[in-house]
């Protein structure tokens, strides 16, 4: 995908999350998500941190070459529970709880997400950036942000049945990530739609017995990312 395409996908991903949370009452921001122990407000705070990281990263140019791309980046975040993941989850919950009202997180998200998208659009499409100990090409970095946003959007709406789902351009980026992690030697089951694929690839939905038969040996690679 071109740099422009990656920028459009990120903008769509962040705007879709904004549309989910903007009009939610505080009670709805305290509904559960697919992330164990996290309410909607907690998870939104986590995604807010990602948008803030985007602003820092896009202002942190690095000399190439890249040491990871938009797929191999995720191999440093394997699926399953980890001590680091548990510590972060606890920190995010406590940080979100420090707000006077859950809607306070929405206000900061609504300012930060568009700023991250603008910074992405102004970045050098041929440049490199550094984040989390890695160097990535700018378009690949945007793809990682979009993939995470799509996964967490689907996490957010599990108890919000009327909420919009991620858009097609953003979802396509997350699907491409899953395809890369699955490798050329396996094909996703034909019965999975794109969102189911993303949820199962991210370990949010368990594989069924039929899934395991269809995937064969590749079933052991799930979840593809954490």
Automatic annotation (TrEMBL):
All residue ranges annotated as the Mycothiol-dependent maleylpyruvate isomerase metal-binding domain in the record: 10-156
Stored InterPro entries: DinB/YfiT-like (IPR034660), MDMPI_metal-binding (IPR024344)
Pfam families attached to this UniProt entry: MDMPI_N
Gene Ontology molecular function, alphabetical: metal ion binding
UniProt protein name: TIGR03083 family protein
Species this chain originates from: Micromonospora auratinigra
């Amino acid at each position: 995908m071109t740099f422009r395409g990656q920028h459009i996908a990120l903008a769509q991903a962040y705007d879709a999350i904004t549309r989910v949370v903007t009009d939610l009452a505080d009670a709805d921001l305290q509904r559960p998500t697919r992330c164990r122990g996290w309410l909607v407000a907690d998870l939104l705070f986590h995604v807010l941190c990602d948008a803030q990281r985007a602003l820092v990263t896009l202002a942190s140019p690095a000399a190439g070459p890249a040491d990871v791309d938009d797929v191999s980046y995720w191999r440093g975040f394997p699926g399953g529970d980890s001590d680091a993941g548990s510590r972060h989850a606890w920190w995010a919950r406590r940080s979100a709880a420090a707000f006077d009202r859950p809607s306070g997180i929405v206000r900061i998200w609504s300012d930060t997400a568009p700023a991250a998208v603008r910074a992405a659009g102004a970045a050098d499409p041929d440049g490199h950036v550094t984040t989390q100990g890695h160097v990535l090409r700018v378009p690949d970095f945007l793809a990682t942000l979009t993939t995470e946003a799509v996964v967490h959007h689907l996490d957010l709406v599990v108890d919000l049945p009327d909420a919009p789902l991620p858009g097609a351009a953003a979802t396509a980026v997350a699907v491409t990530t899953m395809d890369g992690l699955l490798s050329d030697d396996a094909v996703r089951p034909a019965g999975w739609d794109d969102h189911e694929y993303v949820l199962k690839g991210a370990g949010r939905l368990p594989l069924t017995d039929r899934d395991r038969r269809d995937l064969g040996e590749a079933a052991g690679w799930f979840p593809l990312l954490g």
